[in-house]
Specification:
By secondary structure, this protein is an alpha+beta fold. Helix content is about 30%, strand content about 25%. It starts with 7 loop residues before the first helix and ends in a 5-residue tail after the last helix.
Length: about 800
């Protein structure tokens, strides 16, 4: 075959492999409205199902009367818990080892809970049917405060007590109270308390990381189609983990797994919202089995915000101790976690509070202790990792606020306090006091680069001048410098530590090279906008020497993709990206043997060079990967099977620990509470960078969601359990208007155990961004006496902070 590109640089460029800002291949369809989302799926005879939802946060269901609804033209069926009970489907397992009602079984536990499922010819008839279902409720006392829940005589879940009213054991051990879900402890309690008792300086703070919601552009939904003739169920849905959904559907329905095909088509954002299983999935399947027709269920925006997986809702109390010079000696953290009506967190089984035990952050803290109590309340279930790896956002917010209050206590500059306590480069791999082994890092280099770039000393001088000017009455605007340094923990497994419902958290890639030298790679992950089709082809291009443009990446169809645990917690690159590289290496190993045969030399006498195998010392003698692929299918090679395919199931030896240094400069008008982000600098280190342009996009997106959470986004309840922010009129989604210009930067500290040295990045900017925006607000008020104020820092709350500090006097 003719080799048309001769210069090595040209050959490298032609591959569009790792390190190049290859344009996103998926955008052709997304930008032209040609994406294929769940709601785009239209099947012959398809029905539409939707829920009757509870207006009450806590009530007994006295009766459900469907008679009138069944008379509504177009309504075919109304499913209730009674209909699902004989099938054992009125409750379903959650990913956290709890169980959740699919349809209200005797009572409801949160506003918007699914009470009945109306199946109709179209969504309009379904809506009319919903109106006609008569439900008689008896209101019960509502608990929206987890602390009150633990003291209350009101038992929220009847399945948490025995016949004598005594609390039974939960999935993670004994309950202290019927409304208590678990206690999770890590670290050394007594030793930590002793260190803190004996310390020169101790800072204590309680902070609330408010309840919020991932709010993806596309809401959740599914289409179930039961083919009764062949006994096959096909389920399309907004699934971040399609294989796990297939296994769960098989386990709870009794259908054999090979008769279930789960397909995640294009997904319009997930951010953790689409990891778990929802009643809508179960009901669409049951309705399809009952009616023999395909059934679609799609949430509207209010359904999504009010009922599907929320995030955060952590009350965190910390104590941090240090020497007079600022060296941290101990950290104590107590969390009360509000899980709502069911524990539907999506965490690996052994980690009921996710990776909250990374709350020692980027600092060398010798002694630490963490205790988390999970609690039921009358709020929606969830507790998902909204653009973070299992509660890392909470952990990083906690430690980055504790550092700031410690700096106040020590009367020290917070940047300097961080520098004194960073884990040093030569301490990696670093064993943290709460059980993690950080793979690699160079925090001082990143921090110094960040501070220098923004002229940190200059900013502090300007801030001091501004404080004086404010005090003299010359300005009503104050200035905050938000600092944050974060370490993420991404890439769950390894299997020995991490499983969800017993499913080990490895991931996979299968590659088939076609005879003409193009390829298809299938992975166990599923992109929700991150650009996997672009970047995984780049990994392969570099590994197997075929152009990325000749490699199709396919995800999300359980009939074709190898088993994998899906995409969330920035695990795709650390786990499936590693599987991709490893599968590519298997291809390359076989290609080497084929090349050696074709070139009539020993296997060891050829070496890989960009897109070919070359005879060592004779560069003019080579076979390109294209030629090798052709030979693999068309030439009888002694001792070598025809074909060129490989599969890799990758169980990572450890997680990866990306990190970053963020600085936000913010002006605040104390009379209006309006914030103006003057500058935002974000330095990320995600190890080897596959596609710098995609990384930049991920950073912009993550920071924007961080801005949202820090400055306004929340799921708020009144004391009757009514959701006050159930529409986009009330729930803050930033637009171009609020978003500042982000300056991105990077250092590169490869992961030593990842085949290509890459760490995840998708969630880092969210994890590091939230404390950075929040610290900017808090830092602005620090010279006026503020120690801590809770997020979200919307204009009204900022105004109140200024007012409480006497700044309006
Ligand atoms: O699991 P998820 O895809 O959400 O997160 P990720 O693994 O952090 O990857 C997000 C996107 O950034 C993917 O398209 C990755 O391939 C890309 N990425 C990269 O180009 N270089 C890295 N070192 C890490 C991620």
């Amino acid at each position: 075959m003719k080799d048309e590109i001769t210069s090595r640089d040209d050959r490298v460029a032609n591959l569009k492999g790792m390190g190049c800002s290859r344009k996103r291949v998926e955008d052709a369809r997304f930008t032209q409205g040609k994406g294929n989302y769940v709601d785009d799926i239209k099947l012959d005879g398809m029905l539409f199902g939707d829920f009757v939802r509870s207006p009450y946060a806590h009530a007994r269901i006295k009766s459900v009367n469907s008679e009138a609804a069944l008379k509504v033209p177009g309504v075919l069926a109304v499913l209730t818990a009674e209909d699902l009970a004989p099938l054992g489907l009125h409750w379903m397992p959650t990913l956290a080892g709890d169980k959740q009602m699919v349809l209200a079984d005797g009572k409801v536990l949160f506003q918007g809970q699914e009470v009945a499922f109306v199946v109709a010819e179209d969504r309009y008839a379904a809506a009319d049917g919903i109106e006609a279902v008569e439900v008689e409720y008896e209101e019960l006392p509502v608990i929206v405060d987890p602390f009150k829940s633990l003291e209350s005589d009101v038992v929220l879940r009847e399945d948490t007590v025995d016949e004598n009213g005594k609390a039974t054991d939960g999935a993670h051990g004994p309950r202290k109270h019927p409304n208590h879900i678990f206690t999770w402890e890590v670290g050394e309690k007594d030793a930590t308390e002793q260190v803190i008792d004996e310390a020169d300086v101790v800072a204590t703070e309680t902070m609330y990381y408010h309840r919020t919601h991932p709010c993806p552009l596309e809401t959740c939904g599914s289409v179930a189609s039961m083919d009764k003739v062949n006994g096959k169920l096909t389920l399309w849905g907004t699934f971040q983990a399609p294989h796990a959904i297939r296994t769960i559907v098989s386990l709870i329905s009794g259908l054999e797994e090979h008769n279930i095909r789960v397909i995640s088509p294009d997904i319009g954002g997930g951010f953790g919202n689409k990891v778990g299983a929802y009643p809508g999935y179960v009901c669409s399947v049951v309705a399809s089995i009952v009616t023999g027709r395909p059934v679609k269920w799609i949430e509207d925006r209010m359904d999504n915000l009010m009922t599907t997986a929320f995030a955060r809702d952590y009350w965190m109390t910390g104590k941090i101790s240090a020497t007079k010079e600022g060296k941290i000696t101990g950290l104590h953290c107590n969390v009360t976690a509000d899980h709502g009506g069911f524990d539907a967190c999506a965490d690996p089984t052994k980690f009921p509070a996710g990776f909250m035990n990374i709350c020692t952050g980027s600092y060398d803290i010798p002694t630490a202790y963490l205790a988390v109590d999970g609690v039921y309340t009358n709020k929606a279930p969830g507790g998902v990792s909204y653009r973070c790896s299992f509660r890392v956002t909470e952990a990083v917010y906690f430690i980055e606020r504790m550092i700031e209050v410690l700096a106040i206590e020590l009367n020290m500059d917070a940047a300097e306090l961080r520098r004194i306590n960073f884990i040093k480069k030569d301490q990696f791999p670093y064993q943290s006091a709460l059980g993690w082994e950080y793979d690699s890092g160079d925090y001082h280099t990143a921090w110094d680069k960040a501070l220098k770039t923004v002229d940190y000393d200059g900013l502090r001088a300007e801030q001091a001048e501004r404080v004086e000017a404010f005090k003299r009455g010359e300005t009503r605007k104050i200035m905050g410098i938000g600092l944050s340094f974060f370490t993420e923990i991404v890439g769950a497994g390894p299997v020995k530590n991490c499983d969800i419902l017993g499913l080990g958290m490895f991931d996979s890639c299968e590659i088939r090279i076609h005879p003409t030298g193009s390829a298809i790679a299938r992975l166990g992950t599923i992109s929700q906008g991150q650009g996997h089709a672009t970047t995984f082809a780049q990994i392969l291009a570099s590994e197997i020497g075929l152009p990325a443009d000749s490699i199709t990446v396919e995800e999300g169809d359980t009939d074709t993709a190898p088993y994998g645990l899906g995409t969330y917690g920035s695990r795709s690159t650390p786990v499936a990206g590693a599987a991709t590289a490893m599968a590519g290496r298997k291809i390359r190993a076989k290609a080497q043997m084929i090349a050696a045969y074709l070139l009539e030399v020993h296997d060891d006498d050829v070496e890989f060079d960009v897109d070919r195998f070359v005879v060592k010392g004779a560069p003019e003698r080579f076979k390109t990967m294209k030629e090798i692929a052709f030979a693999a299918y068309n030439q009888a090679i002694p001792g070598i099977e025809p074909g060129l395919e490989a599969v890799s199931y990758y169980d990572p030896p450890n997680m990866t620990y990306p990190f970053g240094a963020y600085i936000c400069v913010m002006d605040i008008d104390v009379d209006t509470g309006v914030t103006d982000i003057r500058r935002f600098y974000a330095l990320d280190d995600c190890g080897t960078r596959i596609n710098p342009m995609i990384i930049e996009g991920q950073v912009h997106g993550g920071l924007t969601e961080a801005l949202a959470v820090a400055l306004g986004q929340e799921i708020a309840y009144d004391d009757q359990g009514n959701v006050k922010t159930g529409t986009l009129m009330d729930f803050f989604l930033p637009t171009a208007w609020e978003v500042p210009n982000y300056e991105t930067d990077h250092t590169v500290t490869p992961s030593p155990h990842h085949p290509i040295g890459a760490k995840g990045v998708g969630e880092s900017p969210h994890v590091g961004g939230v404390p950075c925006f929040s610290n900017a607000v808090q830092d602005a008020f620090r010279p006026f006496g503020l120690r801590h104020t809770n997020m979200p820092h919307d204009h009204w709350r900022i105004w109140k902070t200024a007012n409480s500090l006497g700044m309006h006097d």
